[in-house]
Amino acid sequence: MSTASGAAGAPLLELREIGKDFGSVIALDGISTTVRAGQVTCVLGDNGAGKSTLIKVLSGVHRPTRGELLLDGAPVRFGAPREALDAGIATVYQDLAMIPLMAIWRNFFLGSEPTTGWGPFRRFDSATAKDVTRRELAAMGIDVRDVDQPVGTLSGGERQSVAIARAVHFGARVLILDEPTSALGVKQAGVVLRYIARARDQGLGVVFITHNPHHAHPVGDRFLLLNRGRSLGDFAKGEVSREELTTMMAGGDELTRLAEELGREPRS
Amino acid sequence: MGRPARADERVAAVGLWRRLLVKPELGSLIGAVVILVFFSAQSQVFRSLSGIANWLDVASTLGIMAVAVALLMIGGHFDLSAGVLTGTTALTVGIVAVRFGQAIWVAIAVAGVLALAIGALNGWLVTRTGLPSFIITLATFLMLQGLNLGLTKLFTGTVQVRGIAEAPGYHSAELVLASTFSLFGQQFRIAIVWWLLATAVATWVLLRTRFGNWVFATGGDEVASRNVGVPAARTTIALFMTTAGAAWLVGSITAVRLTSVQANTGTGQELIYIVAAVIGGCLLTGGFGSAIGAALGALVFGMTQQGIVYLRWDADWFYFFLGAMLLLAVLSNRAVRRYAEAARR
Hints:
The complex is a heterodimer of chains A (268) and B (345). Chain A has 268 residues and is α/β, with parallel strands linked by helices. Chain A is built from nine helices and twelve strands. In chain A, a hairpin with a 6-residue loop joins β7 and β8 (123-124). The radius of gyration of chain A is 20 Å and the shape is globular. Chain A starts with 12 loop residues before the first strand and ends with a helix. Chain B has one domain: ABC transporter involved in vitamin B12 uptake, BtuC (Orthogonal Bundle), CATH 1.10.3470. Chain B has a two-stranded antiparallel ribbon with strand order 1-4. Chain B is mainly α and 345 residues long. The model of chain B is unreliable at 1-13 (pLDDT under 50). Chain B starts with 8 loop residues before the first helix and ends with a helix. The interface between A and B is medium-sized, with 34 and 31 residues.
């Protein structure tokens, strides 16, 4: 597990004091962090911390109200998800952005279908699409039986893996993963974490959103903690332990009080 | 096996049977065969060439619409104005040709522009407001119904337009839209060719083009497809324009063939298109279905309608049959999909 020490040069993606309001609600405020090639930046936070809003800002769904987004050191503004995609920022959403009733190969190329032929006979090159899907999934070590089967028949971990493989194939430089492990069992989550590490080793900058420090700590190089739309800190790997992450995320005192409260009940 | 694929050995376990069952058109194919056998066994007229030409004719114009409506349903929407729009286009052809004395092709072109504009309006309203297409197109359905009657009365003083055959260029239009061709010594309507053509083009677009992929995606999960860069709004508008375009074709065929058009033409047909599409395997929730299935659904409809006439049954039974078939189709679609998707996890 060699972590690229790519401190040199501009980061792939940099957030400077990003903020987002929805009417009078301040959903995000003062968020700063960096995403470097070959590194995993984890965004940690409880429900309602602003993780989803942050993803939507990064992936072009929302425009930030304040602050700056820098791609390769140059400021950018995305008006639509397509623009972010074209800039190499791919997002794997919690709801996966896959269509359950459609075949894996159709999903794999959805929105970026290869075509063949000319003029009115330009058509979806299904042979190439199936072939590439099969190859890319195999390259990521994903074992699906048949690329013709509907995505709805895959398990949660398999779906996440297919979505990651898709992003990697389409030349993503930054891969944003929205809670990819949250709905999964221990074993399946391990599988997905392994794909995250693999994407990182291929030189992608990964933004890994999660509420689970146990998933974040082993793969993360940088940790951004969110609470109620604000940053609790942006740490490099050596600066923070798993225990500290857990404590900060849960609001340490709250957790201690909860433990006491729950612990007392059965004894009385 | 169905397809020679260089896949691993676990694929074989899925089997031909399950592979066939996930095809949306399977139910309508079985239904069509059963009905064909049933009526053919009962009625000699039904299985004669003239009988076949008859029920194919009924199925053809219905089929053109059912195929377009199926695409729209796969894309996740309904068009209740599709039926009355065939009337609107037929009346427009008639009024422009007869009242304004234009050549028939000019009249057909005007009707086409109008139909596509109405389709675009439907699509734009649906994508813009996010309201269910059911409500939006119910509104356009009612408005068009009123306009059809009101404008026909305004222009002709009656509730019909007649005398289309006198328009300049009528014969060439008749050749393209309303002629017959001979096969095995029997005359068949040219509309049957249009129906087959529409089915073939729709199937090709659906399964072999980027647009087809977007149709399935938009109907399957609009938000998810937009997130991966599918132009969902444009796809939806294009689909509404497709049903409007089909209504234009059917309206033109009707106007040219009958040479007089009633103001209430097409009203009530919209539900039958949806029924044919559902019999053909379209899910009401979108994202699944087939153009071939919808064409077969229309065939089931045509055969039943004519078969009941040939057997000299009371025509009232027709709707009972249709309802029963619809129920059967919906239940079997549901069961088949569950079966096909289960046990593969």
